[in-house]
Amino acid sequence: MPIVRNFIRHASPERLKEYFTQAKIAVNDVDWSQDQSIVAKNVIQLVDHLSDSDKARLRVDAERVCHMADDIGQAALLSVVKDQSTFTSLSNGIERSHWVYLNDPDSFRHAEDIRYADQYRHGKNWSGFKVDAGIDLATDSASLATFTAKLKSLFGLGDKVKLELFERTTVDDDGNDINIVQVMIYQEGFCPMPIWNSKETTLSPGSGVLSQRMQLLMILAQV
What we know:
2 domains, three-stranded antiparallel beta sheet, four-stranded antiparallel beta sheet, alpha+beta
């Protein structure tokens, strides 16, 4: 599993110990006080003897962490991570991504959503719909419940739908900071459904995507 080896080789002994402890994956007889290269070599050897379920868990975690280790992923993480001082002090992209994954999982998931929105919203399969600027964004529970109900009706969604809202910032083409509210709509299941992306009073539909066994629909709104 090349992705797993890359994940292990670029993580500090401290981070690896923290990961395997949290994941409850047993890697016995590892001296975490040794140099990183020795620890990584020993852990990689032990990984070959893990159960199939532990290998699968490790592979999924490694893929998510490594996917957020490039420039796009790092920018997304930096825009939402709470402890930016610790984040920026870490040695490399995988180490930073790994630290957020373990210590701030909600922010990590938000960063994954941000990455998708920022990377694909300008794709050729997306169309744009403009609305009036300056419209107040209603975020009270009643408004969100109404919004969710209308989406269920519009797209024929089932009852198991979750709405999640969070704030973030991005930079426009002129280098100015833009405050954004990103709203995620998750639906259990595997049937394709559209993704909507709205930024700076623009609403854009895109192709369906599957994210961690859940469908998602996203909206970005300037505030």
